[in-house]
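Retro notes (design track)

What went well: tokenization of the new backbones is finally stable.
What didn't: we kept losing track of which sequence belonged to which structure.
Fix going forward: every design gets posted as structure first, then sequence, in one message. First example under the new rule, 305 residues:
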């Protein structure tokens, strides 16, 4: 197994990636290219195509709903990384549509990869477990407004029995870079809109976080080394209290910090109010992942008033 893992690490791959120009995806593309891989990026617009090509990737035009394009991209690749998602959380209907579109896209990519022994790295979320930090062994989230994502990812992991080296990177609620991104970024956006840096409940609930550049390293490591059917936690900060996050945001924006109604956060209100710390101890030990970039609270100091 050691020799096989070493071989996987050393082998340069042509990687098809969806969502390659977003906050996380752009970091993943840079990480892949700087480690000897080549990239084919799915792009929906001239602007995203230009950004991907400037970074050094080849591009193929289409979106997650273009299933034939997805199959064509996967057919040209030695491995696939899926990151794209429509982050419209304005209504329950919008969330449901995004989840359904992603599920169909994952199914199309899966069809192309079955029996090929190629790696397929997809994205999931760290689960919430009452009373403790969640671990890589805990089951995925399959209920609630984004439960469909968990079910689709579980189907991808099941491809391990059909000749696909599938793996899931579970991202925490906040993946950040330069003070932007994730649930903390949503708190910042809402604070700007409402004039209050708010938090639901008493604010003692904890959210895990990771810097986008550290998450990108884990996506590469999983592509190169992860065994089929495995889940990994991209968690650097096990859990910051939401009121501590809101306090930094309020100070940076010069706004009052206080509890607000969970309804402020629309369909995500229940998720925002949940205590959901998460551990990455197994991921660090098994894949040698070592986060080194700023923590969330430190990175939020980059928020501009």
């Amino acid at each position: 197994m050691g020799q096989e893992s070493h071989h996987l690490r050393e082998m340069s791959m042509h990687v098809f990636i969806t969502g390659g120009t977003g906050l996380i995806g752009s970091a993943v593309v840079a990480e892949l290219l700087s480690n000897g891989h080549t990239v084919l990026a799915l792009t929906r617009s001239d602007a995203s195509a230009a950004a991907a090509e400037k970074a050094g990737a080849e591009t193929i035009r289409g979106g997650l709903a273009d299933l034939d394009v997805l199959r064509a991209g996967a057919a040209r690749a030695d491995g696939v990384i899926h990151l794209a998602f429509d982050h419209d959380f304005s209504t329950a209907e919008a969330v449901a549509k995004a989840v359904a579109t992603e599920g169909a896209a994952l199914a199309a990519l899966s069809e192309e990869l079955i029996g090929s022994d190629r790696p397929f790295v997809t994205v999931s979320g760290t689960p919430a477990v009452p009373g403790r930090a969640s671990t890589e062994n805990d089951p995925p989230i399959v209920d609630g407004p984004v439960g469909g994502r968990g079910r689709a990812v579980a189907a991808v992991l099941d491809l391990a029995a059909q000749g696909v080296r599938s793996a899931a990177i579970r991202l925490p609620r906040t993946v950040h870079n330069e003070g932007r991104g994730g649930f903390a970024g949503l708190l910042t956006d809402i604070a700007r809109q409402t004039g209050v840096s708010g938090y639901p409940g008493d604010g003692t609930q904890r959210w895990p976080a990771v810097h986008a550049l550290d998450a990108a390293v884990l996506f590469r490591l999983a592509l190169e080394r992860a065994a089929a059917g495995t889940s990994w936690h991209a968690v650097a900060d096990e859990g910051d209290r939401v009121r501590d996050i809101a306090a930094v945001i309020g100070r940076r924006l010069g706004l009052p910090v206080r509890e607000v109604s969970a309804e402020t956060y629309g369909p995500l209100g229940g998720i925002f109010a949940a205590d959901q710390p998460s551990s990455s101890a197994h991921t660090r030990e098994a894949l040698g992942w070592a986060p080194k970039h700023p923590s969330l609270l430190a990175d939020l100091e980059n928020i501009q008033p």
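Added context from the reviewer: The radius of gyration is 19 Å.
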